[in-house]
Specification:
It is a single chain. This protein is 26% helix and 27% strand. By secondary structure, the protein is an alpha+beta fold. The chain folds into two domains: 117 residues, D-amino Acid Aminotransferase, Chain A, domain 1; 153 residues, D-amino Acid Aminotransferase, Chain A, domain 2, CATH 3.20.10.10. Strands 8, 9, 10, 11, 12, 13, 14, 15 and 16 form a nine-stranded mixed beta sheet that branches. Helix 2 crosses helix 3. The radius of gyration is 19 Å and the shape is globular. The two termini are 38 Å apart.
Length: 297
């Protein structure tokens, strides 16, 4: 996939520059130690033809919180960054795009704190991240990191080595994606998405604590509240998940995508008739502003 070309524009430390001409410091803590934080944000062409960043404030507020959780200096205002992001989209003529802000560290080969941080905002066109078909998912041999060893609530670059290993393992074994458990063996999340399962008309999802509580996850719960769909946040095992009627991943890149099977156990409910499918359609309506105000069941 070509993320940029010779004329692609990025936002770099307060100025708009060509991505092909931008430089970075090869002695950065971010490059050597994975000491950086980032966001994954989507923009959409709405039904009126406008470009709209979905939940921009929530994403940039989380970027700040992630940086502060990792003791990274942070001096930017969310509104200013949102304005810069719209400028990046406009200069690159993008509407349905994936946006990647990164806060990264200066040159520092020690573990001492820094006096400043740098910021990059890039964007590229993105369609369906995990495709259109229902997913075949497997339990990963990798677990999510112990939250006592990391700031698990931060969207930190280094955490995603774990995600890469899990996803590559699943695809090497012929699956579409992985599901990771936590250190106690309970279901946690996918490499880059949260998980919900459906049973007897109710949705269940892992609680905060051993997961990154995603902004899309929060949106799914908001939609369920409007549609009077019960949601329970609690711990559950892989065995319980295999007894579910249906299941789906949700995340900014993944959006809402259903599962066909889990560890070769096929879910009995027809996806078209599931709560997950209703959420999938309602989510698309929300991000494209097809429905103004509250959703209608």
């Amino acid at each position: 996939m070509a993320y940029y070309h010779n004329n692609t524009i990025i936002y770099l430390n307060g100025v708009f520059v060509k991505a092909a001409e931008a430089t970075t410091d090869f002695y950065s803590q971010s490059l050597h130690y994975g000491y950086a934080v980032f966001e994954g944000i989507r923009s959409y062409r709405t039904v009126t033809g406008e470009t709209k960043i979905f939940k921009a404030t929530e994403h940039y507020d989380r970027l700040k919180n992630s940086a502060l959780a990792l003791n990274m200096p942070y001096s930017w205002d969310s509104n200013e960054l949102i304005e810069a992001t719209y400028e990046v989209l406009e200069r690159n003529k993008l509407q349905n795009a994936y946006i990647r802000p990164v806060v990264y560290a200066p040159a520092n080969m020690s573990f001492n704190p820094n006096n400043e941080s740098y910021i990059l905002i890039a964007a590229w066109e993105m369609g369906l991240f995990l495709g259109e078909k229902l997913l075949r998912v497997m339990t990963s041999s990798f677990q999510r990191p112990n939250p006592k060893g990391f700031r698990i609530e931060a969207k930190a670059s280094g955490h995603y080595v774990n995600s890469i290993l899990a996803s590559q393992e699943a695809k090497a074994k012929g699956y579409d994606e992985a599901l990771l458990t936590d250190m106690n063996g309970y279901v946690a999340e996918g490499p880059g998405a949260n998980v919900f399962f459906e049973k007897n008309g109710k949705l269940v999802t892992p609680p905060a604590g051993n997961i990154l509580p995603g902004i899309t996850r929060a949106t799914v719960i908001e939609i369920c509240q409007v549609l009077n769909i019960p949601v329970e946040e609690r711990l559950f095992t892989t065995d319980e998940l295999k007894q579910a009627d249906a299941a789906f991943f949700c995340g900014t890149a993944a959006e809402v995508i259903g599962w066909q099977s889990y560890d070769e156990v096929t879910f009995p409910a027809k996806w078209e008739n599931t709560i997950g499918r209703r959420i999938q359609l309602a989510y698309k309506d929300r991000v494209t502003e097809a429905i103004k105000g509250e959703l209608v069941d």
